[in-house]
Amino acid sequence: MAKIAASILSADFACLGQEVADVQAAGADLIHFDVMDGLFVPNLSVGIPVLKSLRAATGMFLDVHLMIDRPLRYAERFCAAGADLVNFHVEADSRENLLLGLEKVRALGKKTGMTVKPGTPAEALEPFLPLLDLALVMTVEPGFGGQSFMEDQLGKIAWLRERIDRVNPACALEVDGGIDPRTAPLAVAAGANVLVAGSAIFGKKDRRAAVEALRSGGTQKIAD
Ligand code: DX5
Ligand code: ZN
Q1: Domains of the chain as residue ranges with CATH
Q2: Which of 36, 52, 56, 139 falls between 20 and 30 A from 79, CA-CA?
Q3: Is the pTM of this model over 0.85?
């Protein structure tokens, strides 16, 4: 069964600790922490001080998605601030620097992730797969919550599932962007086992029903 990662991008940041406790009670498996620098993506979000505060407020697994340019510069600081997994974009730096970043994250006892944007072929992740705990396929252009799922990315998910099963079966395959009760089963059928959802969880009044609907393949009706 797929794990559900609640993306804080759609949470109320004025009460983030409470929001996280709420989605934990609703059954979310992990917290997806979206970091944006206004360069790698055309938006800004939160960074190290917020991660540190959230770490002190929750024991949940923190999956940190770095949508930032040259993430090696900050990898150690995100680890020290309490990330459980640090996820780089494959487009954000040279292969050499990305490898150094993964090494740093590992050396600090944290898990490693690598992401591809919709326009980047899945093959770009291949050389990193043996070193990863998680591979992430973006199914929207990164930068904003609430966009529509890009179905043309399903082939990329399936391609990665096949490669992961061969070279590193322990590596999780995560999908991020436009996940809702209709699209969640498409991603799972293609091979994803971690689903990120922001608006489809935080945007709903009944968050338990929202998480359940994502997990169970969208058979339940969710109130707005
Ligand atoms: C987008 C972020 C996502 C975002 C997903 O750049 O990486 O994690 O929060 O939002 P939804 O689930 O609303 O598409
Ligand atoms: Zn994300």
Answers
A1: 3-216 (3.20.20.70)
A2: 139
A3: yes
